[in-house]
């Protein structure tokens, strides 16, 4: 699942290429992904791209005729190519295609068997319920320790689940929650309410360092290589059975409450 660092890289790459260009057509190929039935996709035909920004895991492609908001879900992504390019073998299913006035096609795709990606055309991105409900974003310079305290103090919920809850913190998913907790030396199963002052400070520092650092590293990496770059950068997520990069102990996989975590018991819960 793309999380805020990859989505930020995608938004910046699209902005660099598409801002100022005209959308010749917006064709929805899979209407399971299209969520605004009252607004026809043709609304964007002839629109000029004004800006491309990110809200949590959502991409907001702003035009002079409205906003195209994209949620990649679990298996969604995007790519662009020339109109006469040969089709790529085994390419993921295309949800929708933006055709620009310079001959570029932007395909929005979903590789999952279940369509979890979504597309909206709205006058304001906050008309999308998921965007309106987003909590504070650790990538935002305005994000503070007070934001962490407001979410965690008194919360009788496991910490990994809190980190992935988009209404609590925007943009963090399964992978970066594991990496944040590893950096903060905190167990994924501990309840947020049990954190003391020093632990909340470590959590804040880990959230900002991990997310902002990943955004910096992802910039400039080709869109097609973002997933591989993310996987390669993980220290504990997806590394079950491998040695911990800090203590050398074994990274373990733990399934609980409908989710799973990869973590180092030695570093994160004193064994």
TrEMBL record:
Keyword Transcription recorded: no
Keywords: DNA damage, DNA repair, DNA-binding, Glycosidase, Hydrolase, Lyase, Metal-binding, Multifunctional enzyme, Zinc, Zinc-finger
Listed cofactors: Zn(2+)
Reaction(s) the record says it catalyses: Hydrolysis of DNA containing ring-opened 7-methylguanine residues, releasing 2,6-diamino-4-hydroxy-5-(N-methyl)formamidopyrimidine
Residue span(s) of domain FPG-type: 235-269
Keyword Manganese: no
InterPro entries associated with the record: FPG_cat (IPR012319), FPG_N (IPR035937), H2TH_FPG (IPR015886), Ribosomal_uS13-like_H2TH (IPR010979), Znf_DNA_glyclase/AP_lyase (IPR000214), Znf_FPG/IleRS (IPR010663)
Domain Formamidopyrimidine-DNA glycosylase catalytic: 2-115
Entry GO MF terms: 8-oxo-7,8-dihydroguanine DNA N-glycosylase activity; damaged DNA binding; DNA-(apurinic or apyrimidinic site) endonuclease activity; lyase activity; zinc ion binding
Protein name per UniProt: Formamidopyrimidine-DNA glycosylase
Organism: Microbacterium mangrovi
Lineage: Bacteria, Bacillati, Actinomycetota, Actinomycetes, Micrococcales
């Amino acid at each position: 699942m793309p999380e805020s660092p990859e989505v930020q890289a995608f938004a910046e790459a699209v902005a660099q290429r598409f801002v100022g260009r005209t959308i010749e057509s917006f064709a929805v190929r899979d209407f399971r992904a299209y969520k605004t039935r009252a607004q026809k996709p043709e609304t964007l035909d002839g629109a000029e791209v004004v800006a491309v920004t990110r809200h949590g895991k959502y991409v907001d492609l702003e035009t002079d005729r409205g906003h195209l908001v994209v949620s990649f879900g679990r298996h969604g992504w995007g790519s662009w190519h020339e109109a006469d390019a040969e089709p790529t073998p085994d390419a993921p299913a295309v949800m929708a295609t933006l055709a620009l006035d310079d001959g570029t096609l932007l395909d929005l795709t979903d590789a999952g068997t279940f369509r979890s990606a979504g597309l909206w055309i709205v006058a304001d991105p906050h008309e999308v319920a998921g965007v309106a409900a987003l909590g504070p974003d650790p990538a935002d310079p305005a994000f503070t320790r007070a934001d962490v305290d407001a979410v965690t103090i008194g919360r009788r919920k496991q910490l990994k689940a809190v980190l992935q809850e988009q209404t609590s913190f925007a943009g963090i998913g399964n992978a970066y929650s594991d990496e944040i907790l590893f950096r903060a030396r905190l167990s994924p199963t501990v309840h947020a309410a049990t954190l003391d002052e020093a632990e909340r400070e470590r959590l804040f520092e880990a959230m900002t360092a991990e997310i902002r650092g990943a955004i910096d590293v992802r910039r400039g990496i080709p869109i097609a290589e973002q997933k591989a770059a993310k996987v390669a950068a993980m220290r504990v997520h997806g590394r079950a059975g491998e040695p911990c990069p800090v203590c050398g102990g074994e990274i373990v996989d733990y399934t609980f409450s409908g989710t799973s975590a990869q973590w180092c018991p030695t570093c994160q819960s004193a064994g």
